[in-house]
């Protein structure tokens, strides 16, 4: 084990080999037929959802953010575990509608919705999170043309941010949502257009590992919602607080304390019932639900030593897993948890780097880490790969084949 390995593997190891969905990795690779590939463990997906259900108040609706992983089979599985799904394109909308999920449980977010996408969402009857006055006018026109009263919520850019988050999506000048101070004007316009106002969507940040920061953001979100409800054209029926729940990727990071968040949400539910009695509370999660259930698998096709340092050259890399490579050369690069999937329990190790087949030094899967001595044909596994993996990567770069995805 190395300092790039998690303290506790989410997958079992039998006879030195990682098991995914109860299948040894070597056998799974044979079934898939080629590397690289992504594999997602449906048992781990189910277990994570059950853990959240047991920890969060029963009144809290659990939504899946499809952008984290839109693989159709995975979304089909998630649709049976959550209360709703959030999509960010017409393509994702089709994937969720194909699961059979009722349109009233689907929401559509994103700062750049095209008019044709908005028209599809209106026709489907899903909830549209309005992020600009242009979107509002487009939705109203589509509703008039189709003879439908569109269901809308206002995505609010709050006047605060999620502290300690890996990606701050609220507070300050942002392309996301309606600035909180402008939201009353938009709410009045919704009333004037006769649209069906459902509620608010407040998303302040993502990938946060500090429970106290999430708790503070949730408390301030409730205060903001109560304040804006005074300007709403009708009773608020939904308050989507977003999520922000992070997962530990790197050495030194600790798991999020969701129990304290659950305890705080029980207080939020009580206050919401007292101040906005018609409103349901929703938490929207993507990465937290699926990241740890997925792996990226690539095969070593060459081994070389350059001036004393060993390089394992794999058949996959940055073009399939941009985040693990360092997102196109971020200033401070850290290694994702990486292992040799068919030599997990080996006791000896060597310092090595795992690189992909692309003609760029940025194609780096793991840099100068201790791994068991590996041979050509061995399988490199990148853990924590269930979210923002394949569809968040430049798969067309250099024209290599797109990897397979399997749900086991």
UniProtKB/TrEMBL annotation:
Residues in Orn/DAP/Arg decarboxylase 2 N-terminal domain copies: 45-291
Record-linked Pfam families: Orn_Arg_deC_N
Keyword annotations of the record: Decarboxylase, Lyase, Pyridoxal phosphate
N6-(pyridoxal phosphate)lysine carried by residues: 67
Catalytic residues (UniProt): 359 (proton donor)
Cofactor(s) the record lists: pyridoxal 5'-phosphate
This protein's name: Diaminopimelate decarboxylase
Species of the source: Noviherbaspirillum autotrophicum
């Amino acid at each position: 084990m190395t300092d790039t390995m998690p303290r506790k593997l989410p997958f079992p190891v039998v006879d030195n080999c990682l098991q995914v969905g109860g299948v040894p990795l070597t056998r799974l690779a044979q079934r898939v037929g080629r590397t690289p590939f992504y594999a997602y463990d449906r048992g781990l997906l189910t277990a994570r959802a059950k853990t959240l259900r047991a920890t969060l108040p029963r009144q809290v609706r659990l939504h899946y953010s499809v952008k984290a992983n839109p693989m159709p089979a995975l979304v089909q599985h998630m649709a049976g575990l959550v209360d709703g799904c959030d999509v960010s394109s017409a393509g994702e909308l089709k994937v969720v509608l194909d699961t059979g999920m009722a349109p009233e449980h689907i929401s559509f977010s994103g700062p750049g919705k095209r008019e044709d996408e908005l028209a599809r969402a209106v026709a489907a009857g899903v909830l549209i999170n309005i992020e600009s006055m242009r979107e509002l006018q487009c939705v109203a026109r589509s509703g008039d043309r189709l003879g439908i009263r569109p269901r809308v919520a206002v995505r609010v850019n709050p006047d605060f941010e999620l502290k300690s988050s890996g990606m701050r999506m609220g507070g300050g000048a942002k392309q996301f949502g309606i600035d909180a101070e402008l939201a009353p004007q938009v709410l009045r316009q919704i009333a004037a257009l006769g649209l069906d106002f459902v509620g608010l969507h407040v998303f302040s940040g993502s990938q946060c590992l500090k429970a106290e920061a999430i708790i503070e953001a949730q408390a301030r979100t409730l205060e903001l919602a109560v304040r804006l409800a005074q300007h709403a054209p009708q009773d608020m029926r939904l308050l989507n607080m977003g999520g922000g729940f992070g997962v530990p990727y790197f050495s030194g990071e600790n798991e999020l304390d969701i129990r304290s968040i659950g305890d705080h949400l029980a207080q939020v539910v009580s206050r919401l019932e007292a101040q906005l009695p018609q409103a349901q509370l929703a938490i929207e999660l993507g990465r937290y639900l699926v990241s740890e259930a997925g792996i990226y698998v690539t095969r070593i096709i060459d081994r070389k030593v350059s001036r004393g340092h060993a390089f394992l050259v794999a058949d996959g890399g940055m073009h399939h897993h941009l985040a693990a490579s360092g997102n196109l050369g971020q200033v401070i690069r850290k290694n994702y948890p990486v292992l040799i999937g068919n030599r997990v329990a080996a006791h000896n190790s060597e310092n090595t780097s795992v690189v992909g087949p692309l003609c760029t030094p940025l194609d780096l899967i793991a840099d100068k880490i201790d791994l068991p001595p590996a041979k050509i044909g061995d399988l490199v596994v990148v853990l924590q790969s269930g979210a923002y993996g394949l569809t968040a990567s430049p798969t067309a770069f250099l024209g290599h084949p797109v990897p397979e995805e399997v749900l086991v």
